[in-house]
UniProtKB/TrEMBL annotation:
InterPro entries with a match to the protein in the record: MetI-like, MetI-like_sf
Chief localization: membrane
A GO term from the CC aspect: plasma membrane
Stored SUPFAM superfamilies: MetI-like
Protein name per the record: Microcin C ABC transporter permease YejB
Protein's UniProt keywords contain Repeat: no
Membrane topology type: Multi-pass membrane protein
Name of encoding gene: yejB
Transmembrane segments: 9-30, 131-150, 162-188, 218-241, 276-299, 328-349
Family: Belongs to the binding-protein-dependent transport system permease family.
A GO biological-process term: transmembrane transport
Pfam families on file: BPD_transp_1 (PF00528)
Amino acid sequence: MGAYLLRRLLLIIPTLIGIMIVNFALIQFVPGGPIEQILANLEGEGDAFQTIAGGGDAGGGSVGGDERYQGARGLPPEFIAELEKQFGFDKPPLERFLNMMWNYMRFDFGESYFRSVGVIDLVIEKMPVSITLGLWSTLIAYMISIPLGIRKAVRDGSRFDTWTSGAIIVAYAIPGFLFAILLLVLFAGGSYWKIFPLRGLTSNNFDELSMMGKVLDYLWHITLPVLASTIASFATLTLLTKNSFLDEIKKQYVVTAKAKGLTERSVLYGHVFRNAMLIVIASFPALFVGVFFGGSLIIETLFSLDGLGRLGFEAVVVRDYPVMFGTLYSFGLLALIVGILSDMMYVFIDPRIDFEGRGE
């Protein structure tokens, strides 16, 4: 297992470098870099933030004479050259990329171009919102999907199984953003009831509430966003649990256990449960990260939550390259590490699994 983990850890390096190279190369061909955003903003046409901070070497943007900047008409070339130097675009792309990767290897992500705040500080500031959505959605999905999946496996082919499968397929087919809009219309004062708040994670008077009041206020605010982000993972996990239990129920050791006179409950939870839950439990890290990153932008936007999804979207809009590439690097690294943790959980749950024996 040690040699396998070492190989997986070493594989992180070329994989992460490949991800960064592809995205860095694509950015070179995307018009509207940060300098163009600033110049357009000076003429009242841009989307850039009003405050501009020096950022050092960054990951992209078009460079060259001021004829490349549509908003540069009437501005002195010295001003354009100073902007290029400020953002590090006076250097060749290869040098910028190497400098960026050297800084990122030391987890130095620099400062946002337009916020005058370090990228790490921005991520830490926005992360609680995304963690809230990811963690609660994953926990609720497991709490509902596992019992439901077991029930469906035990009653496979029954009317209960058929109707619940239909409901699950319908739920899976509904896009998360459409379900979120439906929740807003029905329960957040859209056209029917105003039971839940429309935006934010806390009320304006949150600091004045008691401890229990803060907990209830927090739960009150996250109910609709968590429901909207849970819908897809709930359906997938339920069917995964059902199929896993069905595979185990059909095996010979289950028939033998029943022949010895054990009750169905004893066989199910004493023998089948551990083996069937292997793939379900081991997939927890990957599922959490999937909910953590996937679809968070739309949910955060609809419910006015200031999380990582909106941070990434705004960084793309204004071409805030330190935020774009810094979050891409850190989240890519996190995703690769989570893949290794998933494999380790397989071995932890079932020591019979041997990745070394597979020659990987």
